[in-house]
Amino acid sequence: MKKFFVILLAAALLAGCGDRAGTEAEPSDCFVIDYNDFFGYEGGELYVDVGRRLHFADLSTGADVFICPRPNCPHTDESCSALGMDNHPVIVGGSIYWFGNQSYYEGNLPRGSLNVYKAAIDGTGRAKCGEVDGITVPEGASAAFKNGVLYFGGVNEHPEGKPEGMREMYLCGYDYAKKDLIAKVLLCEGYTAGVTFCGEIGGELYYILNYQEEDADWWDGDSLEAREHNGAELRRVSLTEYGKIDLETLVISEWELPEKIVSAHEKRAADPSAPVLPIYAQIKEGAAIYSDGADTLIVSPDGREIFIKDFNGNDTAVVNGYIFGDIASGENTVRRLSDGKEVRANIPQEGVAAGYVAGYSDGKYMIRYIDLERQQTVYFAVSEEELFGE
After folding, report:
1. Which of 302, 336, 301, 295 is nearest to 319 (CA)?
2. For tag attachment on the chain, is the N or C end more exposed, with fewer CB atoms within 10 Å?
3. Ramachandran area for residue 20 (φ above 0: left; ψ -120 to 50: alpha; else beta)
């Protein structure tokens, strides 16, 4: 009986998505997709589990279903439609789209291309619907979505005439209605390049580019001398650039960081032995949150700056006016977005570690975490009263 109920629940949720999709305009908000924040749709999110199967989770109820319509499917082999859609899945116009990287040779030269696939809302009826030659995109790489366009960092892993290991990194925008790129701008030529999207302000999408301009001279081994040498080499060859793209004109320009966080970062970076991360940022609920893993600067929508020393604002959830780091069972410390002050938050559920606040609805916060023993993503709700003891 329980299994039958779960199947009915899955069918109802997926049918509901199908009924609504295509009758309403695509959401106009821009949101970032990465290992913390998943593709949002109709009050829920798409996510890929540890078994590389695609799910839809309702963030108001916590209901979680495989993207698979087959009754009694064990979801363990390729006959299950939840498998095979793990590279940047999105829902546009009532259909699921995702990418697939393809490698091939042109004569003796290696090449790569990005295939675009489409399926029904339940994962069936799959077909290739587009192809972009010359670039690929790693699974799980940062991306941003707005108005039916996915913005991502496209990589040419084998640029012709370049040294082994050098890559070209492009800022790309794929329009699912046009089935083609609307943007492909070369950002750099370098090694181990990556783009992190931060969010949108005033019609401009902000991003951070990290790459190594040279092939570093790495030393093998774990000796103190090798670690010091490799750390110095990493600093020497690594570059971080900050940019933004106008989503209407697709023109790219530089992004100037606030002086307060830059000054704090430069003081720390002056110590050659200190491990220093670049300054990262995320734009959520209208605020920009800058952090280098040690200090944090919050810039409110009206431009007011709040500097918080010894607080790591990277990789945090920003939900309903609060900044949440990793959430665990018991007492946690969170920050108010409005003033940066500490607030105590209690998670009553046992066994929660490295939880992420995925959403807020009807007075309840939805927490997502991975149960390591079961190797399963778990969603559960905590009321505002429970969380903050009000």
Report:
1. 336
2. N
3. alpha
